[in-house]
């Protein structure tokens, strides 16, 4: 049962991503990140596989995996986002991708349906990440793999609060970046075992990054002011570079991990 607050959050996510759909298709960060090569290197893909890409966004993971597997099911909560992804992949001649409007926390698939599940740079928009992990584990076949890539918050309280605050100021559909320890605990509770993981520092061109999701110049300036006014130690952690009183770049943490669902024993 979805409560009214969660319903409102998800409706806002749909609105935010619906109007910015094409930006995510064309975003260099989303289309060409080095995590795509890592993902393909980690997954022992086979041409018989059925793969689920949760919150596909611009469809970049689906596009990557399409030539290597039997079928990719690309889901997204936002129909216009899914339409944009479908057009993107049609142009790329990805003919084995099925598009399904679906909530990551309540997937419309049977148990043990997929050889692999992927979710890239999306989970910080989910109101209930524990439900997402449980659902991902449920639809995986025994022995199947889950690859999760997302921005993560530091464990230190002040840094954690700062990051989640500026993310919410920049993107009003942001819910929360979890810490690595939180993700590990959720995966363990879902019965998943970690196989691979690596931390990454993601540099951002601030003007480009902030304008991808802000509504207007005033909102963008508020984000910039919040970051500029931060304690020097906090700015140092996020490698904030200010030039001529304008924020030019910053860096945030990203966690890349692959989990496996235990194989059935006889």
UniProtKB/TrEMBL annotation:
Domain of life the protein comes from: Bacteria
Gene Ontology molecular functions: S-adenosylmethionine-dependent methyltransferase activity
Keyword tRNA processing on entry: no
Keywords for this protein: Methyltransferase, Transferase
All residue ranges annotated as the Methyltransferase type domain in the record: 52-148
InterPro entries found in the cross-reference section: Diverse_substrate_MTase, Methyltransf_11, SAM-dependent_MTases_sf
GO biological process: methylation
Pfam families per the UniProt record, alphabetical: Methyltransf_11 (PF08241)
Matches recorded under SUPFAM superfamilies: S-adenosyl-L-methionine-dependent methyltransferases (SSF53335)
Family (UniProt): Belongs to the methyltransferase superfamily.
Record-given protein name: Methyltransferase domain-containing protein
